[in-house]
Amino acid sequence: MDLLRRSWRDWLGDLGAVGAAMLLGWVLLQGTVEDLPPGETIAVRRDVLIGASTCVFLLLFRRRHPVAVAVTMVFAQWAATTTLGTAAIAMYSLAMLRPWRIALPIAGASLALIIGLFWIAEAGEDFLEGSVIFALIYAVLVTTGMLVRSRRQLIASLEERARAAETEQRLRVEEARLLERERLAREMHDVLAHRISLLAVHAGALEFGPGTPEGQREAAGVIRRSAHEAMEDLREVIGVLRDDAPGADPERPQPTLADVPGLVEESRRAGGRVTLEQNVPDPDLVPSRVGRHAYRIVQEGLTNARKHAPGADVRVCVGAGAELDVEIVNAMPPGPPSLPLPGSGTGLVGLAERVALLGGTLEHGRTGDGRFRLRARLPLRAAHGAGTGGKGGTHGSELL
């Protein structure tokens, strides 16, 4: 099963390791044959066969059982010269796949066994030379294996951090969307409650008015009762979004486009250099739904400017035509960037939700001259058609 799960990269690495073991073993065998004392021989075929068997063992089990393979190779070195190469590559695999606390003692024991074999077979300079060469080979292989292991662990850690960061960002975005939708639902509840209550009041006045014909009185009663039921249904549906604690302060009235100058003035009092260009003949004529979203867009733009470009000039432009055009542009401060205030980075996500509900468009990003621009286009005709009352429709035609 382990063999079937290996990728082509793993097989390529395994074949490379086996090839290196065979090459090193063959080189050591050739050196041993050339340096044999007169009258002594070595069974080359037997030696090669044993070395090939250990290479197959290395190929099959080096990844799943590196410790067992390395320990087996320590004792297999007594059997044939070619197994010295297999044992060296087994130590490399052990250092690559297991911690140094396991790899170093086994590699040290294998090297000590090799030096012992040299001490038995060689003497003088040959013993010293062989010991130094094998010590260097083991040092290079074990160190390389440990470096490869460290690099793989670092890459795995970075990938895990990237996945965690992506997941966290995705959760923050989803949370921001849910919170913004909840806030929008609460705002719409207040607006609809006001409109429906007015409808119920006028229908009641028509129903119980002294001069109302009987047929209209009955129709007005149906309208009044339907409005009352609609209020109850709306309260039940939106009530699950209400998470205010008992005794909490009541919500403030929702802002409109006419409150934008006050918002800009607050930023100026806080030390901001904000310029307001408002090309709207009468902000009170803008539908409250559109004005409320425009106010939030300006508020978010000024907040971002204070966070990411403190002390920079900010220009707020609000114009009304076929659409309500809201634009906030801030210059990037000179010199090195200052430390920004902490934030979730999801404010623009909420603005996108608001603009999408109105069928508008939202753009944000750096401009070619090094400034940052936030621009939203909110349709006015769609807002009137969505239901702002007959008076609002008249105002809209005057505004456009």
From TrEMBL:
Phosphoprotein in keyword set: yes
One function term, GO molecular function aspect: ATP binding
A cellular component term, taken from the record's GO annotations: membrane
Chain intervals for the UniProt region annotation (Disordered): 244-264
Transmembrane stretches, start-end: 12-29, 67-90, 102-121, 127-148
A Pfam family matched in the record: HisKA_3
EC number per UniProt: 2.7.13.3
Alphabetical UniProt keywords: ATP-binding, Kinase, Membrane, Nucleotide-binding, Phosphoprotein, Transferase, Transmembrane, Transmembrane helix, Two-component regulatory system
InterPro entries in UniProt: HATPase_C_sf (IPR036890), Sensor_HK_TwoCompSys (IPR050482), Sig_transdc_His_kin_sub3_dim/P (IPR011712)
PANTHER family named in the record: NITRATE/NITRITE SENSOR PROTEIN NARX-RELATED, NITRATE_NITRITE SENSOR PROTEIN NARQ
Name this polypeptide is given: histidine kinase
Organism of provenance: Actinomadura citrea
Lineage summary: Bacteria, Bacillati, Actinomycetota, Actinomycetes, Streptosporangiales
